[in-house]
What does this fold into?
Amino acid sequence: MPAYAGTARSFGFAGRSASTATHAAHDRYRVHAAAIDRSFVCKPWVRPLKAPAEHFSKFLFDVSAALVLVLGLSPALLVVALLVWRSGGSPIFGSRRIGAKGQAFTCWKFRTMVPDAEARLAQLLATDPEARAEWNRGFKLKKDPRITPIGRVLRTTSLDEVPQLINVLKGEMSLVGPRPILPEEAPRYGTVFHDYVRCRPGITGPWQVNGRNDADYGSRMRLTRDYARNWRFITDCRILLRTAVIVFRRSGAY
It folds into this structure.
């Protein structure tokens, strides 16, 4: 069977602890991505396609722009952090996501939910079939009861994503790229998962300028695949400009 035919569909985590299963999943993601890369490199008549994450010009632009933004926005970010802190709990929230080459990292955001968000989500999904079906479709809830009033403002303006500039400075994310996915989302990507891990996840990206949260899973995967296989620096510039318009209009944000 070709290396690229295997995907992260089944990891056999039954009976393991959540922590062990998560670490095992990350290891398998890395093996999967590496195996696919070798399957192309080992064939002398095939010239490997350079991954977006391997372009130094993209990395240099990301770090330079992120540094300028962090320095320029620091006073405003401190005000936002204070407002979030007053709503209860830490102003910064980190969640584990899958990044380039299948490596897991902590993706930072301003906290937009109540401190006991996970417990509330579990209770909601257990008692509300419609919410459970909506969550299973895209890991999103349009009317999420866990979101705080200040959190809703941050989400509709996309200000909750600004702390990810730190991820960009650390080389874990890019200004533009596929949306960072949760470990449990990886099996849904099928063979497109290989295209995903060839990129650093982006603060903004093709899905944000093509429907944002209204885009279905099929559209997200198609956009991820096309971005990874056809990346150009001018593509990132266009997405950044379109993102500014989308954020101003607050289209598809919740």
